[in-house]
Amino acid sequence: MSDRLGSRLPLALCILAEGGVFAWAAAILPWASWTWFSILTAALALACLGPIATVATDRWFRRTVTIQAVAALAFFLYCAARVFHGAAYLAYLYGGLGRGVAAGLCAALAVLAFVTVPTSLWGLARFGPRPRRREVATGVVTGVAAVFAMAGSARAEAAAAEVPADPEALAAALAHDGRSPAPAGAPGLFTRAPSTCRHPVDGTQATALVAHLVRRADGRRAAETTCLQADDPAELARRVEAHLSVHDEGPAVVDVVTAADPLEPVLPLVDGMAVRPGFDGICEGTRCLAPWQLVATEQFVAERPLPFVPELRFGFDPRSVRAALEGRIRPRPRTDDAVRGLTRVETVTLLATDDGRIVRLVRGRGPRPPVEASRLDRAVEAATGHILSAQQPSGRFRYILDPHTGAVRYGGFSTARQAGTTLALCEVGARSPDVDAAAARALGYLAGLERRAGDVGGIVYPAPARARRIPLGPTALSLVAFLSCRDRVGDAFDDTIARMARFLLRMAREDGGFHPVMDARTATPIPGPDPLYAGGQAVFALVLLEDLARREPDGPFPSADELAAATERSMTYFATTYWPSFLRTFFFLEENWHCLAARAALGHHRHDAYERFCLDYVTFKRRLVLGPTDRVDPTLWGGYGFGNVILPHNTGSAGFGEAVSAALAVARARGEVRPDLEAGLRDVLGFLLARQWNEDACFACTKTVPVVGAFSEHIASPHVRIDYVQHAMAAMGHGRTVLFGPPS
């Protein structure tokens, strides 16, 4: 007997809605068109039109519902198998956070199940054929077994096949290789060219990828990579030693292959994380790129899941890597099986220096140095030297540097970062004429960006004369720099300080918060939410202004009483109203500058709640500093981040170092003992000392621009930005003072 239309229409509408979800998924979710995922989901979206088209005819409705339901369930099982396969692979390869990403993939699978399974079962139960119980049981068992079989195979794939290797024997052979210093003008060892082996790197041959200098016919030196192979590790060691005895100028880097893992496509997200930055190289057939080459060419920052967070970049693009292996510039179109044919190779990296040392590099760095006063002093001195070398005659600091090619970029230049770098120089830089002169030039550059509006002034970049708005952040932090550098440069900028002080007071709201921007034509604030970072920078500036006005009451600055009242209102606001008490028990955002302001106020403007706000904030952030209990690689211990996959950023880690250094000073002033914060500071300082560019790490650095002393974005992203250096330098300088006392 035919079902009535009323019993078919609700199911048809639900299936139509399901089709809309599939159509959206086909158009939006894949990273490229015409992947298997997009083709299958598009086909399912079309299949979902069948029931609504045949809803008036019982016979055809039953057929279209059955076809759609079976196809949707098959698609779900296919996705489940791929997801469990990818989840197992990541969990095995990355450990801690790999399991977190795996859980996220499974959560996404649960969403897919909610979309497909109930509707499909409803359709089959109400309008589909009546299978026997044995057939149903067999189908369910087969599907579940297939899913878990995929997960088991993924774990086996992640365990790469061992390659004959003896890094210790090779290190001993290199120790006998007497190397001479590179001649003047010789480049570093950076090269984009892959090494070409005689045999594929598949575990049958002991293999080493060697980078060294060669003499060209014109007498100049160039970097070259060579692949050496042998039947056993002992013979490989002899071949490497013989090869480097011929090419004996400058340092040499040897990557000994210890394991090989042919990659198979799983899911695009999983494929992009199948190679670990700094640990793994990639081969295709006989061509190979060493781990350090992949990092140097920024192959591990391909994916940006959140475009509005440009710093969140991770994963490699198989197309780009394959293009590099083939010597092409533009990658081929993306496909779902782009990783097929690539082999992940694990290596041990040995650096033979030209002074006779053999250094084992892990993720491009040597052994982690101890956190000692002398080490921190040398690190701050090196960072200072890099910043001084980055300053142009105008006073502006170089913005972005590629440490391997020497390319310099100014895109996205930030006056706040110019001001922050100047502040770091004045706070922790050595008391020397060079540093003082650099600070004066940097302040002069900032003063040239002042946009005056009546009796107030603010910092605007570019073209301050034509600016219609003056933002709070660049002005507040620039004012902090002017005030912090005043004891180095004198009163030359006092009039500028006075105008910026009046700007800051005018931007202050009655409740203690700050307006985000000022109309430059009318010199009136434009209401808006509290801007991130700028609020803490503004309080910091008020604290320093109040202190200066008390010490020099006859100066051109606002009165000390007016500044003290504004400081009190702002401290109260940020300690109470600004961050809801309920959220405060769970998390904070970026409030580092408030801790710096609280430390600066210890001598003249104490505020109990504001100091507690700082201490609560760093106590929360201490939980995000990685350590042995987080099951991450030891190279990440002390980093501020989320694990092995999303690597700790040096700037975020340094920012915590700055904040916790200030918080420890605040805690001691309150008579509180905080061993947890001191331990966190030591961990972060150890991480920063290990990540700073030094002579050994710079074996492939450009020789045209000084790199030693700088900091990159993170392990997988080598470019240097001036604020990366600024924050790390400040953290190490202030950390040294709070742990060991001020340097002599």
General description of the model:
- The protein has four domains: 155 residues, no CATH class; 200 residues, no CATH class; 197 residues, no CATH class; 155 residues.
- The protein has 25 helices and 18 strands.
- About 3% of the residues have low confidence.
Task: List key phrases describing it.
single chain, 744 residues, alpha+beta, 9-stranded antiparallel sheet, 4-stranded antiparallel sheet, 18 strands
Quick overview:
With 744 residues, the chain is α+β, with helices and mostly antiparallel strands. Helix 4 packs parallel to helix 6, helix 13 runs parallel beside helix 15 and helix 21 runs parallel beside helix 23 (650-669). The radius of gyration is 31 Å and the shape is globular.
